[in-house]
């Protein structure tokens, strides 16, 4: 860049430099035009070459397909059956994919035995946490790829959610009881409920029998191993026991109490009237 000096010598210098600058500009313009012409020519050649290659591949694929069908010796009369079989196979695959990946399960009544054995992971959103060891789950199969969050949305009102959620009880955990059905609350009942609400309420989660949530509650001391009849641990009872023992040794949560009463004993005493 040339700055406008005021001295006459500078003006003379600038004037003498003008022809040279103009010549340089003309050379640069010519070089740019030549380069553009060259690039355009090479691009055209590349396009023609690519098109010719694709046409060759198309012909080869057609010949190969014809040869393969000919080598199978399939009579023309069988072609309708083959087409029908192919269509049926595609339709069956689509139905299976929909039933296992995209069909929404609104309530437990729609769940198959395989789902209840932990053979399927379900994606959805926690709509409410009612107690210290259970919550309600709205199934959103396919996640964002099926439109959830931008085309389809989880209802927010109680009326819209009615008969549209799955009640989930965290497997293997028995949390302190809160006051209900005339039964007084246990120590750490409120803390356990607040912790679970903070961790899950309104969040997108994956559920499956023996999911991670039950381990976390044992770690922080807001739950203990559920040992009543019909308990399921998914082969992880020993792991549960180690985690529970560690929480006990640290005396955190419910284990900080001097005379700790289990949730099962609490319910037995106050709901059944047993001493």
Summarize this structure briefly:
This is Endonuclease lcl3. The protein has helices at residues 8-72, 79-102, 158-161, 189-200, 213-219, 237-250, 263-271, and strands spanning 122-131, 134-139, 166-169, 173-174, 204-207, 224-225.
Write up what this structure looks like.
- By secondary structure, the protein is of the alpha+beta class.
- 49% of the residues lie in helices and 10% in strands.
- It has 7 helices and 6 strands.
- The strands form 2 sheets. It has a 4-stranded antiparallel β-sheet with strand order 3-2-1-5.
- The chain is elongated, with a radius of gyration of 37 Å.
How would the blueprint of this fold be written?
Elements: H1 8-72, H2 79-102, E1 122-131, E2 134-139, H3 158-161, E3 166-169, E4 173-174, H4 189-200, E5 204-207, H5 213-219, E6 224-225, H6 237-250, H7 263-271
Antiparallel strand pairs: 1-2, 1-5, 2-3, 4-6
Keywords: Calcium, Endonuclease, Hydrolase, Membrane, Nuclease, Transmembrane, Transmembrane helix
Protein name: Endonuclease lcl3
Family: Belongs to the LCL3 family.
Strand order of the largest sheet: 3-2-1-5
Give the overall shape: elongated
Question: How does the helix and strand content classify structurally?
Answer: alpha+beta
- Helix count? 7
Can you summarize the main beta sheet? 4 strands, antiparallel
N-to-C series of helices and strands: HHEEHEEHEHEHH
